[in-house]
Model the fold of this input.
Amino acid sequence: MSLELLAANLTLRGRADRLSRLNPDARRKEGIRAARDSDVEGLWGLQEAFLVTYGSRGRRQASGESGTWRRRA
Done:
């Protein structure tokens, strides 16, 4: 993995971890504030945190899983 990709992955994981550590009520309030203020970056950050933390299928991912790909034979 290149250094640029590794740095981007760590940055993404860090942003996701920061938002996922908030309690559900604080995340809801953050979402309401971002929607009220038309804060596209804030809304995208919440969506990004959900996808990084839970994946597209809604299950919780391990911390190293997002960069791991299996080859199918």
Summary: The chain has one domain: 3-58. The mean pLDDT is 76. The radius of gyration is 14 Å. Residues 3-20 form the longest helix (18 residues).
